Amino acid sequence: MTSDDPYRQRIVLLTTPLSDGDAEAALGRALSGGDVASVLIDPAGREHGEFQAFAERLVPLVQNAGAAAIVIDDTRVAGRARADGLHLTAGDVEALRDAIEAHAPKMIVGGSGFETRHAALEAGEAMPDYLLFGRLGQDVSDTPHPKTLTMAEWWAAMVELPCIALGARTPESIDTVAETGAEFIGLASFVFDRSGEEAERVAEANRLLNERYAREKALAEERADA
């Protein structure tokens, strides 16, 4: 982000760790915990039919909570489940451009897998709604991946197009990712690795982001008064 004005970062949930049996209950609890901008619904190895059934159960749950439901890597499932968006993970600029031409602006279209600055800038030229930095399933460690932090920090400082930076499984990692300036913090294992505590985890993440925003706002006001 090119502006120096503080902004309140938001949470994006990824369903990668969820099994078919607990997905609805776990996601429902998470969405009850506070502000969530969107949910990326991940096939996570499911066959097409299984994934369609999975998405058709989760999309209305997400939408009823006021978040955007974004299906990963399957245009047919996205359409049949009436999702709000489509996310492509392959790091393929042409595929991303084709998806934007076919589905935007009716649907949100974003992408990931662009692991160099050159590739990310090429993807940005296609004008997706956002890019995500980090690999799905990579958030199971205590700290965010260094490359995620590097790419998100560079992107947020240079490009107006929003980005999502994937976090890790600890509360401390949320502030670490937020330091990059990414507009959205992607969370999966932090929220879903303890069944029954999903609402509390989302509430904690929002509290940490609120506290960060308050600090940044106070600093901006001090600079303006100086």
For the record, the CATH architecture stands as Alpha-Beta Barrel
The portion of residues forming beta strands comes to 15-25%
Provide the gyration radius in Å. 17 Å
- The total of beta strands comes to 8
Low-confidence stretches: none
Q: Could you report the average pLDDT, rounded to the nearest whole number?
A: 96
The ordered string of helix (H) and strand (E) elements is EHEHEHEHEHEHEHEHH
Share in helix: 40-55%
- Class, according to the CATH hierarchy? Alpha Beta
The major beta sheet can be summarized as:
8 strands, parallel, barrel
The CATH superfamily title: Aldolase class I
Q: If helices are DSSP runs of H or I spanning 4 or more residues, what is the number of helices?
A: 9
Structural class: alpha/beta
Distance, first to last CA? 24 Å
Question: What's the CATH topology name?
Answer: TIM Barrel
Q: Count the domains.
A: 1
Per the principal axes of the C-alpha atoms, what is the gross shape? globular
